[in-house]
Amino acid sequence: MAIKATIHKAQIQIADMDRNVYGEHNLTIARQPSETDERMMIRILAFALNVPADDLRGRLELSKGLADADEPELWQRDLTGDILHWIDLGQPDERRLLKAHGRAERVSVYGYAYSTPIWWANIESKLTRAPRLSVWQIPAEQSQSLAKLAQRSMQLQVTVQDGGIYVSTAEDSLEINPIALKRPQE
């Protein structure tokens, strides 16, 4: 018998001064047995960094993630079902990213392992025809510290200011400084 997903709940207060996005969001996360605390918390962080200011063009949602290889970790779809923003985590291969680029208005990747710079160096030249792709590296030490905040029920405050991200709970806080490996072309 297969092990079922564990349900986690996160109440997130977001104050993103860089994008003028503020609000409170309640997430229910179905954490698959193969998913680590680190990956789950990076999913939550990616949500906080990409949630739109309003739902006029659709909501940002957690997808089935690891349970469905054809879906990203998060996505924003409009009311017709078209994908506005495809968000992946880790180190997806270039075929997956090019396919996503063909389906979505924007594609973002958040890498969080020590090997992210090596992965990126190997596929960067293959993604030159993906102008709407952005790739971010969350330093591994910072993503591992973020993983320590994981609980079955969480209350998180995420503040973004001048490119720095501050995540805090009632007991702890940390700073995350993502590194842009690729930004979308204007």
UniProtKB/TrEMBL annotation:
SMART domains registered for this protein in UniProt: YaeQ (SM01322)
Coiled-coil annotated residue ranges, if any: none
Gene3D superfamilies: Restriction endonuclease-like alpha-beta roll domain
InterPro entries (UniProt xref): Restrct_endonuc-II-like, YaeQ, YaeQ_sf
Short name of any one Pfam family annotated for the protein: YaeQ
Record-given protein name: Uncharacterized protein YaeQ
Origin species: Roseateles oligotrophus
Taxonomic lineage: Bacteria, Pseudomonadati, Pseudomonadota, Betaproteobacteria, Burkholderiales
